[in-house]
Amino acid sequence: MGTFSRRTLLLGTGAVAGYATARVFGSRAPVLGGTTSLRPATASKTLNDASGLSETPIHKRINIGEDPGKALVTTLRKELKDAAAQGRPVNIGAARHSMGGHAIPRDGHAITFDTQFLEPDTAAQTYRAHAGLRWREVIAQLDPLGFGPKVMQSNHDFGVAATFCVNAHGWPVPHGPMGATVRSLEMVLPDGELVTCSRSQNADLFTHAMGGYGLTGLITRMDVEMAPNRRLVPTYEEMPSAAYADAMIATLSDPTVDMAYGRLNVDRARFFEDALLITYRPDADQDALPPAGTSGFMSKASRHIFRAQLGNERIKRWRWGIETGIGPAIAGGPVTRNTLINEPVVTLDDNDPNRTDILHEYFVAPDRFAEFITACQEVIPASYQSMLNITLRYVAADTESWLTYAPVPRIAAVMLFSQEMTARGEADMARMTRDLIDRVVAIGGSYYLPYRPHATPDQLLRAYPRAPEFVAKKREIDPKGVLRNGFWDRYLEAL
User: Fold this and answer.
1) Does residue 239 sit in the same domain as residue 224?
2) Number of domains in the chain
3) Residue 411's beta-bridge partner residues?
4) Nearest CA to 483 among 192, 154, 100?
5) Which end of the chain is more exposed for a tag (fewer CB within 10 A), N or C?
């Protein structure tokens, strides 16, 4: 029942909403001239990220799975002290799903958390997530209690604290980014001080860390809101793309809608002309919910169809026909909320050493969505890039984080491209990205920061006007610049 609802006959749609292959330590490194090479994990002290294009030298990598508490804090303080004495940076990462070295400290101490400690409070509908906890563990431990994450990324491989640090959003409605569901957190500041932060205690540190890319402190635990798990039934509505934003906003007036997302047709003959809105409401039957599953065999099988879209417009048209035709008719049965979000990134892995999957994400106000469609139609098909998917979501306003991408309610457009790992492919992707950012910022929108570092510093300032203020606070917290990463090096250090 659950495995057929969204990912099989809809060919991985939801998984792709936040998908990219997790290529990290010692992963494939491109030689940007047309060839690639594979490197074993022990070949050199380097880290990469999901793009496979960000191989970066590091001084050391530390994996921490310690029992949360004094031992963990002691370990973090030692790493901060040692790194500061040597003038080296420190950064914590989980899946390192970013695509521009955002979670990699060049020549520094790269710390990876990986623990399974979770403390639920069903009466308060919150849970305490300790450092390194992945979303798959949150789902596995909350599901038997009848709960699940309130907001999370659309794949379960990532760390809870890491999601907070990029303030990622999901597709439950009518919520904003994940940071809005965090009640409080504990972190070790660059000077070793352990602090508790919330909206009422050290509030400036709390909101600075929310979407702060790990530049504020090393988070050791978080208290996060959870939501009841429910059996949901999907509905599907096809429409012209120009009507999508109004249709999505209209769904928010229905309090029974639990989850919602959209898709656009990427067939070049009708590029972004057609939209599909999928909404989920509670089923009348809420008895005996099955354990949360994953997409399983059928979704993995659909990978072949999804990948066959590369350079094949006929397959793209066929896929859209399935998604809007027989797919909803056959795959419209109920599924639990936890099963919908319990998906690994590897499901749709490309397994091609010559190409890499690259995500873009843009945020526009609903009343500017038609202009966004026009901009994409004028920029993307003229590029050399192969677009495989776009997922649309609603994001409520985030007025808390310093680097907010949604200061007002916005439609989020998550795009997946397959890029050739060559100098030509990289240069063309950079050009297309900058063109899209210019067009989006011109209509009052923004772009998501964790992806390829192709935006210019000026574009970042136009999309994130509080960036200089963020940097000034960062320097106040961390005058020695101990917490640094690729994002800081590329964009913020010069501000």
Assistant:
1) no
2) 2
3) 364, 394
4) 192
5) N
Residue with tokens 């494939």: 28
pLDDT tens figures, 15-58: 344 434 344 433 444 434 433 322 233 335 999 998 999 999 99
3 state SS for the chain: CCCCCCCCCCCCHHHHCCCCCCCCCCCCEEECCCEEECCCCCCCCEECCCCCCCCEECCEEEEECCCCCHHHHHHHHHHHHHHHHHCCCEEEECCCCCCCCCCCCCCCEEEEECCCCEEEECCCCEEEEECCCEHHHHHHHHHHHCEEECCCCCCCCCEHHHHHHHCCCCCECCCCCHHHHEEEEEEECCCCCEEEEECCCCHHHHHHHCCCCCCCCEEEEEEEEEEECCEEEEEEEEEEHHHHHHHHHHHCCCCCCCEEEEEECCCHHHCCCEEEEEEEEECCCCCCCCCCCCCHHHHHHHHHHHHCCCCCHHHHHHHHHHHHCHHHHHCCCCEEHHHHHCCCHHHHCCCCCCEEEEEEEEEECHHHHHHHHHHHHHHCCCCCCEEEEEEEEEECCCCCCCCCCCCCCEEEEEEEEEEECCHHHHHHHHHHHHHHHHHHHHCCCEECCCCCCCCCHHHHHHHCCCHHHHHHHHHHHCCCCCECCHHHHHHHCCC
C-alpha span between 25 and 46 (Å, rounded): 7
Handedness of CA 471, 134, 297, 284 (dihedral sign): negative
Entry field: residues in the chain: 495
Together in a domain, 238 and 367: yes
Q: Show Cβ contacts of residue 321 under 8 Å, excluding neighbours closer than 6 positions.
A: none
Which residue shows structure tokens 């352990």? 194
Say what the pTM is.
Answer: 0.91
Among candidate residues 281, 37, 292, the one with its CA nearest the CA of residue 156: 292
CB 211 within 8 A of CB 177: yes
Closest C-alpha to 183, from 163, 205, 171, 200: 200
Tell me the CATH number at 122: 3.30.465.10
Q: Are 378 and 258 within one domain? A: yes
Q: Tens digit of pLDDT for each residue in 248-295? A: 999 999 999 999 999 999 999 999 999 999 999 999 999 999 999 875
413 DSSP β-pair partners: 362, 392
In a domain, 26, yes or no: no
Residue 283 backbone class (left: φ over 0; alpha: ψ -120 to 50; beta: rest): beta
- Convert the pLDDT of each residue in 434-445 to its tens digit: 999 999 999 999
Return the CA Rg of the chain: 21
